[in-house]
Design brief:
Blueprint (H helix, E strand, L loop, with lengths): L5 H24 L8 H21 L28 H9 L3 E5 L5 E8 L8 E6 H16 L18
Antiparallel strand pairs: 1-2, 2-3
Length: 164
Amino acid sequence: MMTKSRKEIIERTMSNLRCVDDIKRGQGDEGKESSPHEVTQLVNSFLVTVLQNWDELESGWPHIRQGTVNWPKIQSSEPDQQARHCIGKIRDALAHGCFVFEGDDGDRIKELSRWTCPDRKTVDWNLTLKVEEMRAMLECFAEVALEQPLKQRKALRKGEACGG
């Protein structure tokens, strides 16, 4: 059995994120309190899109043609680092639970802060992204990832050898 392709997963994930945006916008137009939590869907979308594909793309990422992708400008502990170079560190931070949500007085999430701590003692990298910046990064990553050749993987069953 073959797993779904990167293209199918990324397109479905981004479609779900747009659907949440549409629902939220529609409820706002009707004066209702928004029920979908767009930041939750954004984090889930980031996890699915980046985590599902990063291992395959990571080794070639510095050399992958970025085309006309307009990566957002961000502030971090390493200001000379471009947004596209933060993807791997954001992936690590999200995968290992090294992030917090930061909100305003109305409890609306405005930013997500992440860090990496390889030795579990010292923070070696941190980044705070506005929700809009994280969304822009996700869209850029998805655009670049969709342009890369697909490697088909099959689902492993219990007892099968891992790797390769």
